[in-house]
């Protein structure tokens, strides 16, 4: 059998959707785009991009839980690329929303501390994002939406955080 024939054989271990509206991946793509537009609109009055908000919120949450995180820890927590995280933090720092301070133990590392201005803006932006989320996900019961998202997160090896509920069954 030639190689192109093998590549063109249909897979037997999944059902190919007959149309896009039956494809979970395509639907997730469309829903994600709609959700991103809703979040971008909610953040626009606060002069924040979505990634700026995620990193500011992550720095605020981690800072409150365990003290100012390192840039690397913040990137890992947020699921963002470390180099991009550094660039976005530079922007947030230029806006006076965070300070990057040298780590006392590892001089190569920087810790991210939310400023008073950043905390005040974060409070307003957080309200706007939570309101947008609430409106966006209103058609689905909250626990059902969370169950699906937790399951998908765990399934692909990216748990959202230790201690979150999981639908992943151990064998």
Biggest pleated sheet: 2 strands, antiparallel
Give the mean pLDDT: 86
Write the element-wise H/E pattern from the N-terminal end onward. HHHHHEEHH
Strand content range: 5-15%
Overall form? globular
Terminal Cα span: 38 Å
What is Rg? 20 Å
Quaternary structure state of the chains depicted? single chain
Low-pLDDT segments: 1-8, 161-171
Query: Looking across the biggest beta sheet, what order are the strands in?
Result: 1-2
Helix content: 55-70%
Count of distinct strands: 2
Structural class: mainly alpha
Number of helices: 7
Can you put this structure into words, describing what you see?
With 171 residues, this protein is mainly alpha-helical. It is 58% helix and 6% strand. The chain has helices at 3-8, 24-43, 50-66, 71-78, 82-94, 116-136, 142-155, and strands spanning 98-102, 110-114. A two-stranded antiparallel sheet has the order 1-2. β1 (98-102) and β2 form a beta hairpin. The longest helix is centred in the last third of the chain and has 21 residues, at 116-136. The chain is globular. It starts with a helix and ends in a 16-residue tail after the last helix.
Task: Draw up the topology in text.
Elements: H1 3-8, H2 24-43, H3 50-66, H4 71-78, H5 82-94, E1 98-102, E2 110-114, H6 116-136, H7 142-155
Helix pairs in contact: 2-6, 3-4, 3-5, 3-6, 4-5
Short summary of the structure?
By secondary structure, the chain is mainly α.
